[in-house]
From TrEMBL:
GO MF: hydrolase activity
Keyword flag Amino-acid biosynthesis: no
Protein name (record): Alpha/beta hydrolase
Transmembrane portions of the chain: none
Coiled-coil zones: none
PANTHER family for the chain: AB HYDROLASE-1 DOMAIN-CONTAINING PROTEIN, HYDROLASE, ALPHA/BETA FOLD FAMILY PROTEIN
Signal peptide: none
Taxonomy, superkingdom: Bacteria
Residue ranges of domain AB hydrolase-1 in the record: 25-145
Pfam families linked: Abhydrolase_1
Keywords: Hydrolase
Species for this entry: Eubacterium callanderi
Length: 240
């Protein structure tokens, strides 16, 4: 991978990426409303062993939204396009929130491209979220969608809130076909229901699950050392 930054065209949108360091490819995928900068405080933990591939998801950061309906499946295709462009045959995928959902989509869509998945605070169905946050997101989607229909400037908020309302939709049967190592990390006070996270671990063969007591949705970025210890232990276990 000689590039350190660039853009890849895929299905009607320009997708922005950056690479840092040398070594085994490790793709980092941010959450809804974020961008690659969310991982700025994590990169050094993985250097110099890994080469970090940072991707701005479709509709986020420097990447276009395009005109297709936003889904985690489409965003997974964007990641594959970046990997193809960089000549990355396979990679470890680390995702947070919607990025975790995209990582799991990749493991289902293209298992031959995924060495391992580290999914932090992800879900496999919108109803995996706790009731009140899910209600808030649905109301936000309706609000911004209404303003858009009135012709008011709303950016891509309807698409981004809509993404969380209708995606992902990964079934237990699909998850049961994942054959790469998977580490699921979440907090007991996460946006995602603990029961849903446990169900994900049951569906995915051999998945490792760590629940951080009292941790919230974004605790990865506030209690980073605790999360990194688990991630490093997982990667060491599988000699990655």
């Amino acid at each position: 991978m000689k590039d350190n930054r660039g853009q890849v065209w895929n299905r009607g949108a320009s997708i922005y990426y950056e690479t840092v360091g040398d070594g085994a490819p490790l793709v980092m995928l941010h959450g809804n409303g974020g961008d690659k900068e969310d991982f700025s405080g994590l990169i050094d933990y993985f250097l110099p062993r890994y080469q970090i591939v940072l991707v701005d998801s479709r509709g986020h950061g420097r990447s276009d939204t395009g005109f297709l309906k936003l889904t985690t499946g489409l965003m997974a295709e964007d990641v594959l396009a970046v990997m193809d462009h960089l000549g990355v045959a396979e990679a470890i995928i680390l995702g947070f929130s919607d990025g975790a959902n995209i990582a799991l989509e990749l493991a289902v869509q293209a298992p031959e491209r995924v060495q391992a998945v580290i999914a932090v605070s992800g879900n496999t169905d919108p109803k995996g979220m706790r009731a009140l946050p899910y209600l808030f997101i649905k109301l936000q989607y309706r609000f911004w969608n209404f303003l858009e229909k009135l012709g008011l400037p709303v950016g891509n908020r309807p698409q981004r809130y809509g993404l969380m309302c209708w995606s992902p939709r990964l079934s237990g049967e699909e998850l049961s076909r994942i054959d790469s190592p998977v580490l699921l990390l979440a907090g007991t006070r996460d946006l995602i229901r603990t029961g849903h996270t446990r169900q994900m671990a049951e569906w995915i063969p051999g998945a490792s699950l760590v629940l951080f007591k009292g941790a919230h949705h974004r605790s990865l970025f506030k209690e980073t050392d605790s999360y990194i210890r688990q991630i490093r232990g997982f990667l060491k276990e599988y000699d990655l």
